[in-house]
Amino acid sequence: MGFVVKPFQAVLGCLTLFLSAALLELPLAPQSLSQLDADSSLRYLSARRLPRPGRGVSALSFSSALSITPLSAQAASKPSHSCLGFDRNIYPGDAALPILRKTFVFTSYWLNPPPGEKTNTWRGKRQFLRSQGFGFLVLYRGRETRELKNEAAAKRNGTQDAKNAVAAAKSEGFASGTIIFLDVEEGGRLPANYHSYLAVWSEELTRAGYHPGVYCSGMPVKEEPGVTITTADDIRNDPASGDVTIWAYNDFCPPSPGCAFPQDPPPPTSSGIGYAAVWQFAQSPRRKEFTAHCPAKYAPDGNCYAPNDTAHKWFLDVNTATSPDPSGGAK
């Protein structure tokens, strides 16, 4: 495999971050915590994700007494630590969560049917996932370019999709301020109508009290000799898109470690997108043209499975983030 798989220490580190963040939100009286109730060139071939049935996203113990330190002081005294999370289109089932929780501290959570699916199997599962200690990457499936035939259609769909996403988020119990990632499957430079769609999506989401995010390609696409573009850069450089949070995918090895669960996960900036908040570095099934040289190999069937999923029941995508709750959806 290229990595010694010891995910527990990484999970423990992220759990500590999660607990610290949760404790900082409590209105504490002067009392001890014990009195409180105690989560290469091939990369230019394509950056588009094709629908894959049931895949990941189409297209993160304590001591008895803890002292509370302000976040600014924590940042100054501790090196940043990345956390592992998984995503997939189909909810893995309640029985899978204790197994997956041994490796991951956050999970995807769809607000509408994922690409290629007619139903949303994640619906109604937020509270149970939260009780198991998971943070969230909240997702909403975006439109395809063919659905945005002109600027008027783009703005109309952007407005409606944002309103639907907000309604679904509220129904599922996600509080205002939660980052909702729009799933953008198309790679390279996006057409003008798509940017209009993204701009309206961002405006409507912000107006409703939520924060816009985008799941998109962080893989360079060659436009002409000597000129490349990533979808992430294209979105970030468009002023109309506003202040969106980027969840970038790049499964090319390197920089991706492949289907790996390293003790010290790489930061999202290692994706090649320096401002990415989340990096998806492994996909199921793997794309052979990008993963042939991965140090950590995928399973013989081409999928990625968690270390404790010895029966290979739940293929998934693997992500890294600097927060154990990248969307802030566990609040």
Task: Please give a structural write-up.
- The chain has 8 helices and 10 strands.
- The chain has one domain: Glycosidases (TIM Barrel).
- An 8-stranded mixed β-barrel has the order 1-2-3-4-5-8-9-10. A two-stranded antiparallel sheet has the order 6-7.
- The radius of gyration is 19 Å and the shape is globular.
- The chain is of the alpha/beta class and 331 residues long.
Low-confidence stretches: 1-6, 20-46, 50-79
Helix content: 25-40%
Quaternary structure type: single chain
Q: Indicate the CATH topology.
A: TIM Barrel
Largest sheet: 8 strands, mixed, barrel
Number of domains: 1
Rg, Cα atoms, Å: 19 Å
Strand order of the largest sheet: 1-2-3-4-5-8-9-10
Q: Return the average pLDDT rounded to an integer.
A: 83
General form: globular
CATH architecture label name: Alpha-Beta Barrel
* Strand runs, count: 10
Separate helix tally = 8
Order of helices and strands: HHEHEHEHEHEEEHEEHE
Strand content: 15-25%
Structural class: alpha/beta
| CATH class call | Alpha Beta
CATH homologous superfamily placement: Glycosidases
Tell me the span between the first and last alpha carbons: 36 Å
Short description:
The chain has helices at residues 7-24, 71-77, 97-100, 126-131, 151-172, 192-207, 231-236, 288-291, and strands at 83-87, 106-110, 135-141, 179-183, 211-217, 221-224, 227-229, 245-249, 278-282, 317-321.
Structural features:
8 helices, TIM Barrel, globular, alpha/beta, 10 strands, eight-stranded mixed beta barrel, 331 residues, disordered N terminus, single chain
